[in-house]
Design goal:
elongated, binds flavin-adenine dinucleotide, 24% helix, alpha/beta, 7-stranded mixed beta sheet
């Protein structure tokens, strides 16, 4: 069987992937972008993005991604709807299996992103972007949440950070945690608990997000895990901060990762396999923003180009 051979394959079509495509396309490498199941990545699931530089009035997340794709395609990048099911990074050119079909590439840029953990509640899914969110930095300043009671779910560093950030906007921030002490680092826990606007709710889980019928968040029904007692807390927003899962399963055992599965870049965006680069949220457990993902995509694109130039003398 004849296997198609590519200069650069970019796995993922979010901010990191399309920015890597823009840079490699402008270097005449005709990159192939494999979109995965979510063309345009996570940003397509949000309405207005207010913190991407260059858009003083904000921009719709979907539109931003369409523009990014068009910009890269203008210079020769190509998109293929497909999901990478397996990779062989032990030989050059590298092997990929995309929806059952083989593909070969001299360089690969991994930009597969990270998914947030869900509570798994019906209302959570139905009220996403209607009061349920996974990113305080992204959504906290929206008018919907101003001077309203807000709920943050979680007990780690991210949950504390989200809660602290939200004290700027909400009237009160309930920090709902299933244990009787925060899991966060001491300093973060202290900062959160000494902030008068943050009210911890211990030993509690969210049993229901209200109110699907009204098509907006009006409160949460909490269950105390020790007593089983239930209570309702009124709020306008639920910020779920119970962790992220990087989409890196494919590379386990081959690429260096931390204990949570984030790929560990060496020297910028290189990985432990020469010719394989990484960009965006799948290698960033700290910032996870559109602009940082795009920045890393740019860096990975430049690195891939230099790698190929060196290989071909
Ligand atoms: C609701 C919401 C609102 C947000 N709002 C903002 C905001 O206002 N400002 C901001 O800066 N950030 C915001 N973010 C965060 C921002 O979306 C992410 O930081 C950014 O999308 C990360 O880009 P990425 O390219 O690394 O990954 P992603 O956007 O997650 O893209 C990953 C891509 O990889 C693909 N993929 C995964 N596995 C495979 C595979 N096996 N084969 C092929 N493709 C694969 C997916 O289909 C997808 O295209 C928000 C996030 C959410 C969820």
């Amino acid at each position: 069987m004849r296997v198609l051979m590519e200069n650069v394959v970019i796995i993922g079509s979010g901010c990191a992937g399309w920015t890597a495509a823009l840079y490699t396309a402008r270097a005449n490498l005709r990159p192939l972008v494999l979109t995965g199941k979510q063309p345009g990545g996570l940003l397509t699931t949000t309405t207005v993005v207010e913190n991407y530089p260059g858009f003083p009035e904000g921009i719709d997340g979907y539109e931003l991604m369409v523009r990014l794709q068009k910009q890269a395609e203008r210079f020769g990048a190509r998109a293929q709807f497909g999901t990478v099911e397996a990779v062989d990074l032990s030989r050059q050119p590298f092997g990929l299996t995309v929806d059952g079909e083989p593909l070969a590439a001299e360089a690969i840029i991994i930009a597969t992103g990270a998914s947030h953990r869900h509570l798994g509640l019906e209302g959570e899914h139905k009220l996403e972007n209607k009061g349920v969110t996974y990113c305080a930095t992204c959504d906290g300043a929206l008018p919907l949440f101003r001077n309203q009671p807000l709920v943050v779910v979680g007990g780690g560093d991210s949950a504390c950070e989200e809660a602290l950030y939200l004290t700027r906007f909400g009237s009160v921030v309930y920090l709902v945690h299933r244990r009787d002490a925060l899991r966060a680092s001491k300093i973060m826990a202290q900062r959160a608990l000494s902030q008068p606007k943050i009210k911890p709710v211990w030993d509690s889980v969210v049993a229901e997000i209200l109110d699907v019928k009204q098509d907006k968040v009006t409160g949460v029904r909490l269950r105390n895990v020790k007593t089983n007692a239930e209570s309702v807390v009124e709020c306008a927003g639920v910020f779920v901060a119970i962790g992220h899962v990087p989409n890196t399963e494919l590379f386990k055992g081959v690429l260096e990762m931390d204990e949570s599965g984030y790929i560990i870049p060496r020297k910028g965006t290189a990985t432990n396999v020469p010719g394989v680069f990484v960009a965006g949220d799948c290698a960033d457990r700290v910032y996870r923003q559109a602009v940082t993902a795009a920045g890393l995509g740019c860096a990975a694109g430049i690195e891939a180009e230099r790698y190929l130039a060196a290989r071909h003398g």
